[in-house]
Structures are given as structure tokens and as C-alpha cells.
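Listing S7. Sequence submitted for prediction.
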Amino acid sequence: MLNVKVLSGSMIAVLLAIGSYLGAISTPSVAVARAGTNPLPEVANAVQKTPAASLTISDRAIGAAKIGMTFGELKKVLGATAQFKVESSFMVDFDAVAVSRSGKVQYRIIYAAGTKLKDTDVIELLRTDNANYKTFQGVGPGMTLKQAEAIYGKATLSYNVDNEMREGVVFANQPTRKIMFVPKAEGKQFAGVYGAGKGGFFQTDKYQPNAVIRSVMVRK
């Protein structure tokens, strides 16, 4: 079985450079839209259409995969409809098991590199790049940061050179810190537009016009 304490410590250290400032952000109440804003029509539609349970991202799950359940339990829930593929060196310090249906990856179980995910191991970190999966408020992969801001409030992007320069984004009114958003801007190294950093840490509320949410992660 994975060493839960070691794995959890590693995740906190490298989860997309978000950890260095998450503690300074108080947990806000859920906001569907900021006062005084007029969300784009497609954003309003997304908010109104609550995703099906099988496609919902929550603070404890992505679809049928739940934080705290074992890998074996997930296999039983999904049955023969799912395929599982190990992806070594998925990112620095982490490997992954890609969970697919009909040949399309639904989400990934992330775990410590150099170990094998056994049926008895507990799921602690999930990630999806699949645009079919959304939070209860309609935010998910593929949505522009501008659209997400209309739902969750002002975006703050950051990265830390000590954490492999992985970029993360936090929204002022996102309902939980256990859901993490990874941004990207096609053709750019970073989605954010950064000035001078401090001690290797860079943070900004400015971003590229084409910046989107690349993926969503849920952690223990």
C-alpha cells in the first residue's frame, strides 16, 4: 500500500505552485457570478445545467472516482466498461493511471512515481482534462479564464521555480481549495502575464487573452 503520509506531503509540496499562497486565501462562500457582471451566454448556460453525477467534479470526486476509495473499489464501480493504463513519469515525482471509456480518457489517478498502484491503495489525487467533466457551477477543462471568472470571481495565477514552474490558478470565490485548476495559453509558456517575482515565486491577476483551464485536479 502507498505510504499515505509521504504521498500527501509530496503532493502538498508540488501541486502546481498553488500551495505557497492557498493558505492566505480564506474559504469563500460559493458565488454563481460576481455582482455587477454579465456572464457570456454560454457561461450562463453552463451554470444552469448541473452536470450529471457521472460527470461531476466535486471536492471529493471526479465522476465515479472518489478521494478516499481504493483503486480496487473504483474498478468494481466501473466494471468492464473501463480501461486502465499506467502512465509512468506523468509529471515530475508522479505517475498516473489513465481511466478510459470507449477509448477516451475520462480522468487520471495520480500517485507517487516509482511505485505501483495496487487495488488496496487509497486514491488521494485525481486529475481530468476531459471537457465533459464540470463542477456543480459548470466550470471545467476547456473553459476560458474569463468565463470562469464570471462564475468564480477574480483569477490569481502563480508559479514557483522550486516547484518545476508548474502554473496554477485560484479564483476568489471558488467553493473549495481541494479543487485545483491548471491553466494554459496556446503558444505561451504561461497563461499568466507576470512581472518581477520574489524568491522564485511569481503571481499575477493578468493573463493571456486565450488562457483557458487546461485541467482540474481534486486532492485529499
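Caption to Listing S7: primary sequence and predicted C-alpha cells for the chain studied. The CA atoms of residues 127 and 217 lie 4 Å apart. Helices lie at 4-14, 19-22, 41-48, 71-78, 145-152.
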